[in-house]
Amino acid sequence: MSLIGISLPVYLNSVPFLYGLQHSGMDAYADIQPDIPSVCADRLRRGQVDVGLVPVVEMFRIPSARVVSRWCIGAQGVIRTVILASAVPLEQVDTVYLDAHSRTSVTLARLLAREYWQIAPRWVYGIEQMNGTPSGRSGIVLIGDKAFDVQAPYVYDLGEQWQLFTGLPFVFAAWIANRELPQPWLARMEDGLSLGVGQLDEVLREWTPRVSSHIDLDTYWKKQVDFHLDAPKEQAMALFLEKVRQGGYASYLPEDGTVPDFL
Hints:
Blueprint: E1 4-9, H1 15-23, E2 30-35, H2 37-45, E3 51-55, E4 66-75, E5 82-86, E6 95-98, H3 104-117, E7 122-125, E8 138-143, E9 154-157, H4 158-166, E10 170-177, H5 183-198, H6 200-207, H7 217-224, E11 226-228, H8 231-247
Parallel strand pairs: 1-2, 1-3, 6-7, 6-8
Antiparallel strand pairs: 3-10, 4-10, 4-11, 5-8, 5-9
Helix pairs in contact: 1-5, 3-4, 6-7
């Protein structure tokens, strides 16, 4: 009998979940496949895995999508690793380069630009063109571990900007399944995820030596990333998805999973 497939990002924000799944013995019941967020979502959409920690905007494209856990990657304001960095103030930005690894964050940036920041830049995939550093009147949307290293005069945290806009927290990724899964298996997965979040000090002891000294994992995991999918975050996720639907912010996402060069 084949194992149920789980996909989750390789970024630091999901390490406590990976730790919990592995240390709870869940890898004996699941085929755990780490990758970048967009690939995790594509695997789930194509039925190559059964459940994944994926960008919430992908719920529009995953058949029979359903949230199956009370855990997530969220923020009560600042998250630190989802940012728009720019060489000039927002109102002067005319081009924003996008991170192809991201979809929720890219969509959130476009939504904030139109509805909150009141700017209309050109959106271009290819942060590599900026070598991680915006110049001129450009900005870059960065997610994940590389956001720790960005050097820019202006850095706008997208979790904080959403909170300023709506007064709500934000959910960047949730545990989503593409089909009905056995409840005992889901309960076992939930126990594994809970183990990781509940033993952050143990995870810190194992992982702090593995990262650069300028990355404060203690602050990041305990004060910036919020792992609990509580009622305010459910409200925020519903509002975000409704705004995305009404504004057509995700309409550029192609059905074949490829990434366009320009929006």
